[in-house]
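hey so i finally got around to running the thing on that chain from the lab meeting. sorry it took forever, my laptop kept dying and i had to restart like 3 times. anyway pasting the input first so we r on the same page abt which one it is
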Amino acid sequence: MRDRAEASENGSFAACAQEAGLRPKTVLTWCRGVSAPQRSGTPDVRRLVESLRARAGEPAEFDAGWEQALEAAQRETDERRGISSRRARVRSLGHEALQHYKSGLRAMYDFADDSTVGAPPYLWWQAPQWAGKTTLLDDFVEQPPEKVGLIRYFVSGVEGNNHHDRFVTYMVKELTRRLGTRASAPSPAELRRLYREAATRQLRLLIVVDGLDEDAAWDDGPPGTRRSSTSIASLLPEPARKTLVRVIVSSRPASKPPSDVPASHPLRKRRYVRELRPFAGDRGARLAAREELERLGASSPGRTATGLLTVIGLLTVAGTGLRRRELAELAGVERNEIDQLLKGSRGLQLVPDIAGAAADGRVTGHEALLRVAGELLDPALLEDCAGRLHAWADRWRTRGWPESTPDYLLSHYPRLLRGTDRVERIVLDPRRQSRLVAAGRPDEALAQLDLVPVAEQEVTVQGGTGQVVARRAGMGTAAEVALSRTVLSGRTRLVPRGFPGLFALAGQASRARELASSPPDGTAAALRLADVAVVLGRQGREEAEAVGREAAARARRASALPAGRGREVTELVEAGIALCACGQYTSGHAVLRAVAGRPDAGWADRVRAMGALDGEDRAGLLDGTAEHAEALSLGASDEQAEALEIWSWLARDDARFQDRVESFCAGLDPSSDLTHVDLLALGADALLPVRPDAAGALARRARRALVDAFAVPEARSSADRAHLRLELSTTLARVVAVLRDAGHEDSARDLLDLVPDGLCPDALDEDVRGQALAVLEQGDETRPAEHPAESDEFDEIRAALEEKPVVGRRLLATAFARWEGHASVADTRRWGLPLAESLAAAGLIDEAVRLAKRSREPDVLAGALAVVSLGCAAGGDIAGAGRLARDAARAAVLTHDLSVHGLVAQALARAGEADAAEQRLAARPDPATAAGRREAGRVRLAVAAAAAPHDPRAAHRFVEEHVAVLGRSAALPFLRGQTVLPDLVDLLLVLPDPREHGADMCAALHSACARPEDVLDGWKAHTVLLNVLLGSGRCCPGVPSPAEGRLSSWKNYALRTLLPRGELPMAEWAVLHAFREGAPAARDAAGPAGTPEERAAALAAVAGYLAGVRVVVPAADGWGRQRTPVLRFLALADALGTDASRDEGAARELVREVLAGEHWRYALPLLPRLAPEALPRLAELALAHTSGAVGEGF
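ok and heres what got predicted. didnt touch it at all, straight out
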C-alpha cells in the first residue's frame, strides 16, 4: 500500500504518515515486520490506511480485511511481549467481576508467600470453562511473587502439550536450569529426583500448571487419540512437610484427580480446592466462544469438522441439552466423535442424568458458545439442523410416541416450534399428551398448550390468481386446546394407599394389584404396588416378585411431584428398604436407584436411598453425587447452597465431606458478597450434627459479616445493597437459626437489635426481623407429623384381617364401598355429551357412538345414544338417526328413569318412527303427582315437535287439540305472568313453522301476554322476555308487548333484586338484544352475568342465534346443550328472526371468546355450522383421553 501510494501523484507516503500523527520511521518498521502497531495507536493506523488507500485510488475505508490483519499483528506482538489478549479483557470488567479477579490474585500471592511450617502445598483452582482461569494465571505469572522461582506449564490438547512425556521434558529442563545441575535424559524418575533436590536445597519454587483437565490420561483421554498411561497430575510433586515447593493448578470442576494419582498425594485432598468465581464477563466469553468455533473448524479434517459443527448447530437450534447418542444419530457421526468433541472443547460438557450415571447424559453448551454459534454459523447449516430435528420428531410421532420417546421431544421440542404451524400438530397430538400423562407429567402437557396460538391469524394461501392473504379462524385450534386443557387438568381417581395392601392381606391379590396400579401418577402407583408386593412376599405368594418388578418400573418412570407431596418420596425410600427386607432385593434396589436419581426428591431422601444400596451401586452413586456437588459449588449462590445441602447429608457418615464443607466455607468472602453470609449459615447447619465447634465458628463468622454490613450499608456494592433491601429477612432467619442451634441464642437476639432502623422495613414495608423472631420463639419445638384419620381405620381392618379374617373382610368391603361413594370421578358428561351430539350432526357417527358408549350404565348409555340420534337427524342422516334411536331403545330396557324413556321416544319420533315413539309413551304408567303430569306433558310436546317434519298435519292437529286448554288457563289472572306463556311457546314450537298457526293460538297468546299498562314486577323473568320476543317478532297481529318504559322499569327491578341463581335469564336477555339490536348490544347485555359460566352460556346462545344454528329442545332436563328455558327461547327467536338480524362473523368472534374460557363446552354445538373441520380432531382427542373411562359415567 505504501508503494502504491508513493507511485501515485497524490502525495508522498511521509505526508500521509504525518497527517495520521505518526512518524514515517515508525511506519517503516511496521512495513518491514520489525514491530506492529500498539493497540493504543489503532485510531492512528485507521487514519493512515484510509489516507493511503485514497491516494492509491481505492475506497478510503478501513474494512474488515484490514481489521483482521491488524488484530493478527497486534496479537502476535502481545504474545511476544507476554501480554495475553485475555488480560486486555480484564480491563473491561465490571465492578463485581473485578472484585472476583482481585480476590483470586490476592489468594495466589498469599499462598506463594506463606512459608510457615504446615502451609498448604497446593492450590487447585476449579471453575467452569471461560470463567477466567487462564487470564488470572497469566497475570499472576507476569508479575510473580518476589524471591520465588516460578515454572509455568500450559496443558493443551490443541498444542499437543497434554501428554506426560512433553511435561516431563519441559519440567526436567526447567528444574535443571534453576538448580544449576548437569542436564540428564528426561524421565519421570529424573523429574522426581529433581523435585527432591529442590526440596533438600530449600529452594522456593512455585509450579503453575494451567488446564490440568486437558491431560490426555484423565479418564483415558478422548477416543481416537494417542493415549497416555501416566497422567501429568501424578507427576506433580508430593512436597515434604518442611519443603518450600508450592504448586498451583487449574481445571474445570472435578471431584477427584486421575486414577493413577497416589492416595497420599495432595490432589486427593479436597481441602486444597478453591472455587474461582467467574469474572470473564459476557464480552470475554463471546470472544472465547468465537475463538473456540474457529479452532474447532480449523483443527478437524473436512468430514469431521462438518459433523462437529453440525453437533454445535443442533445444540444451538435445540436450545437445550440433547443426549450424546441422540446427537450422534442426528449429526450422522459416531458416538466416539461426540466424545472427542466433548474432550477437546472448552464450551461443551456432558451433564449426567443423575449422580454417577454418566453413561449417556445430556450434552450442554456454554451459553456464549451457542449464542455466538447462532450468529456465525452458516444459516443453511442451522436450517438443516432444524430440519433434522423436525424429521426426527416426525419419526417418533409416526411410531405413536412410545415409552422410549426421547425426553427432549416430550419436554423441550415444542418451544422450538413457537410461531410455526408444527406446534399445533405436536402439542395437540393426543398420543403425545397421553405419553406425558403416563409419565406423570400432565403439568408439562398443560404448560405446552400455551404455545399454541388460538387467535384468528393471517396466512398466505395459493389462490386462483396467485398468493393471497386469507384469515384462518382459530376456532378449531381453540376447541382442541380447550378440550386438551380440560382432560389434562381433570381430577384423577387416587385410591387411598391403605386399600391395596389390605386387599392383598385379605387374599384378593388380583384386585389388590389392579387397585395399586390404577393411579396415573408413577410415585403413587409405585408406593401401592410395593405395599402389595411386601404383603404377598410375607405370605410366600409367587406373584410377589412380579408385583415388585412392576413397582420398580413405575418408580423409574415417575416424574416430579407437585408441591406438598414430598413426603411420598420419603415413603418410597422406605418401600424400597421394605422390599429388600422381605427378600426382593432386585426390585427393592431398583426402587432405591429410582429415588436416588429423582431431581424433585430432597437430598436427604436421595442420599439415604444411595446408602441403602450395596457394593458398586452404592459407591458409584455416592461418588457421582459428590461430583455433582462439586459442579454445583462453582455456580451461582443458589447452586452453591444446594452443594452444601448435598455435603451435609454425605457428611453424616463420611468425614471427607465434613472437611469439604469447611474448605468451601473457608473460601467464602462475605465482605465482597453478602450471599456468602447465607452460605456460611448453611455450612454451619451442615456441620452441626457432626462438628458442632466448627459449626459454631461458622455461625459466628456469618454474624460478624452481617454486623459489618450493618455498619456502613451504603458503602457496599450495588448487589449487596439490593440483598439488604430484598433478601435480608431470609438471611437473618438463617443466621439466627444456626446461632440458636449452636448454643448462641443470646448472640442471635443481639444481632436483631443491631439491624439499623433504615434496614428494618423491607421492600414491602414489613419488618425484616419478623421471620428471625419467629425462629427464636419457635425454639426447638417441632410439629408432630400429621396422622391421617383413615390410618386408624386401616389399622383396625389390618388387625381384624390377621385375627378374624371374616370380620376383617367385611370391614374392608364396607370401608371401600364408602370411599367409592365419595370418590371424585372424572366426569365427561359436561362436555362429552354435547361433543357427541355435534359429531353426529357433522356426520362423524362412528366417533359419536364410541364416545357415547364410554358409559355402561343403562340409563346414561340410553340417554346418550338418544341425544346422538337427535344430532344425527339434525345433520340430515335420518336413517342413521333411526338406527341409533333403536339402539337407545334397547339400552333403555334396563332403566326405570322415565325421563330417559321420554328422550328415547323423542329420538324415535325425530327419526320418523312415530308409532314406536307412541308405543313407548303409552307403556309409561300414568304419573301420580302434578309434577309428574307436567313432565309427561312436556315429553308429549317434545315427541310431537320431533315428529312434525315427517307429518306436518299431525303437528297442526296436535296443537289444535291442546291450545284450547292453555287458552283457558291464560285467561286466569293468577296464572298470567307465570307458566302459561312458556307452555304456549312449547306448543307453538311443535309446528314446523311457528309463524303459521291458527286463530285459537293467536287468541291464547293475546290472553297470556302482558298489556302495556301491566306492572311486571311479579312476573317470571323468562315469561317477560318471551312476551317481548313474541311482540318484537310479530308472531301474530296485535300480540301485546310491555311498554318500553314498563320494560325498563322491570329491568332495573330485576337487576337490583337478589334472585336465586338461574332466575335472572342472562342468556335469554342477551339473545333478545341480538334479535332486536344486533351483536354489540347482545354482548353488552351479557355483561352483568353473575358468573363466568352464565356469561359463557349467554354468549354461546347469542352466537347460535346469529349463526342460525337450529335448536332441539330435549324431552328431559339435563340432556341439552343449555338449560331448557334458554333452548326454548332460542328456538322461538330462530323461528321468528329475519336474515337481516343474523351475523355469522360476529358469531365466530363470540365462539372464540367462549372457547378461550373455562366453560368452552357451550360452544361445541355451534361447531358443526361454524367450524366442521375441527370436529375430527376433537373426536380423536376425546377418544384418546377417555379410552380408559368406560364405566365411569358420561
